[in-house]
Amino acid sequence: MAQIISIGSGRLIDLLKTRMGRELKLFKDDGFKVDLEESPAGQFTFLAFRVSEGGASSSTLEEAQNIFKHYLADSISDIILNHWEDILLKDIIRENYYYFEEDDKELIYHYALQHINREGQNSRDTLYWLRRKSRILEKLLDFLQNNNRIIIEGFIRFRLKEYIGELKEAADRAVDDFLIEREYREFIHLLKYFVEIQESKIDSVHVLIRGGGVFKLFDDSMEPVRSYYLEGYIVDLTDNEINYEDLLISALITIAPKEITLHYKNKNSFSAPLDTIKNVFTGRVKECRGCKLCASTH
After folding, report:
1. First and final CA of the chain: distance in angstroms?
2. What is the pTM of this model?
3. Is residue 103's pLDDT more than 50?
């Protein structure tokens, strides 16, 4: 006896229909017979699939129906992760963080995508995506084992609570990222202001960056920057190395050089302070990694 398996949704039904059209072709190529009927029902549209005997496959009707449910579950899980997820994330951000401006919500959304590894392309991200799909696929197969009718919105809401929880956690972490980034931008803006109003005490400064976060400052004659340029500082830069990133930035702001040349061997260990220096001293920063001073960073 033929069995009808139906999917209902108020969103993305055309996408689901297109995806299932490709799956039906594969299913029929395997020798099974499936008929599709589309019908509206209030705010939902249902796709009814009738799996019946009459194909060339040697499988029983029950086996054919179970195989079709795997096709269906695989399609739905892909659509949830690749398309519904965007809708769900934006809904979560809109409902829980309604007080942010629209542009800010968009930034939070992109931060959230990073937390669920949607914007990366490496193998680790792919494995994470596959694990998430596997959990959703398992829930779908379990549901379809005992049900021939599924409404995607209801399934997500009541059967994927753990998944929704992950998206909410990603949104929360994204808001933290956004606030930290906004605070950083405001901090940079303030430092830029200090630099603009400060009179330059020296035209050119060379910043030597050594391993372990150690910095030294030299003037254009490659002599250590003298302490009288840094009134109020307790550190004598002729005899001491600066071991604190914030102190380096503060020292540069104090002397406000017209030009800064950075000397380093490996940027990865110092990317944060270097980016801060470049952002604060816009247009004044050069990088050099090929002189004698650079060689001394070993």
Report:
1. 78
2. 0.79
3. yes
Could you say which of 136, 167, 188 is where a domain stops? 188
Mean pLDDT (whole number) for 198-211: 86
d(CA 269, CA 122): 22
Q: Residues 242, 252: contact at Cβ < 8 Å?
A: no
Within 10 angstroms of residue 235's Cβ, the number of other Cβ atoms is 15
222 and 169 in one domain? Answer: no
Whether residue 237 lies inside any domain: the answer is: yes
Which amino acid, one-letter code, is at 156? I
> How far apart are alpha carbons 84 and 16 in whole angstroms?
11
**188 close to 280: Cβ distance less than 8 angstroms:** yes
Give CA–CA dist 90/64, Å, rounded: 38
Pair 166, 38 in one domain:
yes
Alpha helix segments (H runs only) across the chain: 13-29, 61-79, 85-96, 102-115, 123-146, 152-159, 161-197, 245-255, 271-280, 292-295
pLDDT in tens, 8-39: 999 999 999 898 888 777 777 766 778 889 99
Q: Give the DSSP letter of residue 32.
A: -
Say how far apart CA 75 and CA 23 lie, in whole Å.
8
Query: Could you give the number of structural domains in the chain?
Result: 2
Count CA atoms closer than 13 A to 224's CA, side-chain side. 13
Q: 198, 256 in Cβ contact below 8 A?
A: yes
Give me the residues paired with residue 215 across strands. 209, 242
For residue 233 the two structure tokens come to 């500082």
The confidence score (pLDDT) of residue 40 equals 92
Partners of 9 in beta bridges: 45
Q: How many CA atoms are closer than 13 Å to the CA of 164, on its beta-carbon side? A: 13
Residues 166 and 24 in one domain: yes
